[in-house]
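In this supplementary section we document a worked example of the pipeline. Step one takes a protein sequence of length 183 as its only input; no multiple sequence alignment statistics are reported here. Step two produces a three-dimensional model, which step three serialises into structure tokens for compact storage. The input and output of this example are shown verbatim.
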Amino acid sequence: MGKKKLKKKLKFWALKVFIVSLILTAGISVITELLMDKLSIVAAAFIILIIVLIGVSFDIIGIAFATCETKPFVSMASRKIKRAKSAIKLLQNADVVSNICGDVVGDICGIVSGAAGAAIAIKIVAQAQNTPNIVITIAVSSAIAALTVAGKAAGKTLAINKNKQIVSFVSYVLMFFFKDEKS
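The serialised model returned by step three reads:
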């Protein structure tokens, strides 16, 4: 692929990622903000935990695809194992899969969990009259960051060591959502 064609492809990809990220973040943020107003602090914290876990899970999937080889799935495909065909297609586009899972979904979850954490901090500040606001906001943001970073750190090791199993599982799940095209 020539330099100009590659440059144009990268610009188009970046634009697509920008638009998808904008739409996903707006949608998730709206839903999260609407929920945060109506939920108790404990329930809102649980929602944030779910968002963090989704981000960590997608980061794991992205790394697994970025580090997995196609060879075992080619062997599985020759034995007519259905998920292998799906895995091969995904692995041939590992850069895109990794980018969408790790960067788009993972980063959006990180940003949304931070914003939701700010909403929780505001609720706590309203209830805790003797605690300085800065202590509450730092505690909430630090807890969210620590959970996210620790989860991603553990997840990276898991993703690298179990990449084949993760790719196989994701391919198996995606088989149910996408029909197999007959050649």
